[in-house]
Amino acid sequence: MAKVLILVDHASGKVAKTAGELATFAKRAGDCVGLILAPEGQSQALSEQLSNTVIGQVIAVESNDFAKHGQGCILDAITQVVEKVKPDAILIPSTSAGKEIAGRLAIRLNSGVITDAIDFASDLSATQSIFGGSFTVSSKVSSGIPVITIRPSAIEAEVGSSAPAFEKVDVLISEKGKLVTITDSKPAVKGGRPELTEAKVVISGGRGTNGDFKPVEALADLLGAAVGASRAATDAGWYPHTHQVGQTGKTVSPQLYLACGISGAIQHRAGMQTSKTIVAINKDPEAPIFDVADFGVVGDLFAVLPQVGQAISAKRA
Ligand SMILES: Cc1cc2nc3c(=O)[nH]c(=O)nc-3n(C[C@H](O)[C@H](O)[C@H](O)COP(=O)(O)OP(=O)(O)OC[C@H]3O[C@@H](n4cnc5c(N)ncnc54)[C@H](O)[C@@H]3O)c2cc1C
Fold first, then answer.
1. In this structure, are 52 and 96 located in the same domain?
2. Which of the residues 65, 209, 231, 291 could staple to 205 if both were Cys, CB 3.0 to 4.6 A apart?
3. pLDDT per residue as tens digits for the range 177-195
4. In angstroms, rounded to a whole number, what is the distance separating the alpha carbons of residues 91 and 84?
């Protein structure tokens, strides 16, 4: 049976969600081993957050050098754990930090890397959605240990029944790994809503909102969703560019994507086409967004969204 090592990302604060998703993919191939790289004294508590995942074993490395010196130390640690665990594949979250680790790790291991995968199969092949979502490709690393980054929310995390076995190991951090020192870092200012690329539900507004995102935000808050926007909306200054979904914005792959007053231009679809269920609300029955939508409502978003909110609230009551 294959063994898959997953890198547990605790920077986002959503340890169980991100690691749970990677573990669900890993279990398809065999046993899942989680790797926690944590500051001194913190790995046990982080490991306890994984008790509802399907991770069988956790290997923890503690060092304050990870935060102080960054990627060089992280790579030293991962490489030594890989030598110990001898995994058949390594899965890493597809964040910008994750992709940097993956590329550098693949060089160290003399193997291949696949980034932004949306699926992972038991034969260790990975699926990507490429060229703006026009093609879905399946590929396999042909030599060495495959290093694969997986997009957040690409799968619903399976719930496990027992806490993973915990083992703390020591590694040697090289002087080369400490060549960079991080002198200052400030976390990005976040609102109360989930991160766009991590959210299970994304509700986006386009030019059809005419600049009024209140109904979009109201439904997002009701569903605990993130808010996205088309480029027409961000270019008009109606919503921050950091919320833009599409070719020149963010790529999202939530369980549910609700497009409100968005026509469905190819550049927008490039960023949301791999969402599990797509719902579109648009006044124009010919709008191209309906070509990729699983469900569609032809109507005015200002009339439809409040009704959706009322129906959800009534059902919950
Ligand atoms: C190089 C390049 C990169 C790009 N990158 C991106 C990108 O990353 N993301 C992106 O989104 N776009 C991108 N674009 C722009 C893209 O081509 C479209 O112009 C843009 O997506 C259109 O945004 P929209 O759908 O909100 O507006 P429109 O195309 O104007 O559509 C508005 C829609 O709202 C509907 N509508 C109007 N009023 C209502 C109402 N009251 N209720 C319901 N429906 C209503 C209309 O019927 C219409 O379908 C890019 C373009 C280029 C050239």
1. yes
2. 209
3. 999 999 998 876 667 899 8
4. 16
